[in-house]
Specification:
Layout: E1 2-4, H1 8-19, E2 27-29, E3 37-38, E4 42-45, H2 48-57, E5 60-63, H3 68-80, E6 84-85, E7 94-95, E8 106-107, E9 112-113, E10 118-119, E11 124-125, E12 130-131, E13 136-137, E14 142-143, E15 148-149, E16 154-155, E17 160-161, E18 166-167, E19 172-173, E20 178-179, E21 184-185, E22 194-196, E23 201-202
Parallel strand pairs: 1-2, 1-5, 2-4, 5-6, 7-9, 8-11, 9-12, 10-13, 11-14, 12-15, 13-16, 14-17, 15-18, 16-19, 17-20, 18-21, 20-22
Antiparallel strand pairs: 3-4, 22-23
């Protein structure tokens, strides 16, 4: 299995993989940094040719970065090379029996996924985040640690919801929106905006 990325996010991802016993033939990919070994144990490859050769033996890959745009870029590149995306689900996650799409997203430790939620392909729900009833999240959106999305919130594609941010019920967040850490979003946010503060306000 190949992890796309060998930076900070990959450290926490590796702990989940170790706890699940999924480290056999584990390889990391990083085309920026020159290191050849990750965490003193796992090989790092650096070129597209190496990735393609790896996929001929094992087509599965995991997104090892948190940034929504980079996650999507890796997904596009690696699927074109013959890779097949798989997701990670950590320990202590509370799943509703009526949630959908979580199997296509990375769900880290100690998260809550409520009833009638829909989580898009390639999303990252990071440690301790809460996704409450009837929330819908678009593809490749990142929900950072401790963020809370309350009932019937709608979040678009390629968004980043900051650590410990709270999105109040029925708020609609457009595509490619950034919500600052600790913000409380009380009103709808259009596409492409950045909001911060309590209550959150648009800054760009």
């Amino acid at each position: 299995m190949l992890v796309a990325g060998a930076g900070g996010h990959a450290f926490e991802l590796l702990d989940i993989l170790i706890s699940e016993g999924k480290t056999k033939n584990l390889v990391f990919f990083d085309e920026i940094n020159p290191e050849d070994i990750f965490q003193d144990r796992f090989p790092i490859i650096h070129t597209q040719e190496e990735v393609k050769a790896h996929f001929e033996k094992d087509p599965f890959f995991i997104l090892g970065t948190g940034n929504p745009q980079v996650r999507h870029q890796f997904y596009e590149r690696f699927t074109e090379l013959g890779g097949r995306l798989i997701s990670v689900q950590g320990k202590g996650v509370a799943f509703s029996n009526f949630s959908t799409g979580a199997e296509e997203a990375d769900i880290f430790n100690l998260c809550f996924i409520g009833a009638n939620t829909e989580i898009g392909n390639g999303c990252l729900i990071n440690t301790g985040a809460q996704i409450h009833h009837e929330v819908k999240i678009g593809a490749f959106t990142e929900v950072n640690p401790g963020a809370v999305l309350l009932g019937k919130v709608l979040v678009g594609k390629f968004c980043s919801i900051g650590a410990n941010a709270t999105i109040l019920p029925k708020v609609e967040i457009g595509n490619r929106v950034t919500v600052g850490a600790g913000s409380v979003v009380t009103q709808d946010v259009p596409d492409g905006e950045t909001v911060i503060g309590v209550p959150a306000r648009i800054i760009s």
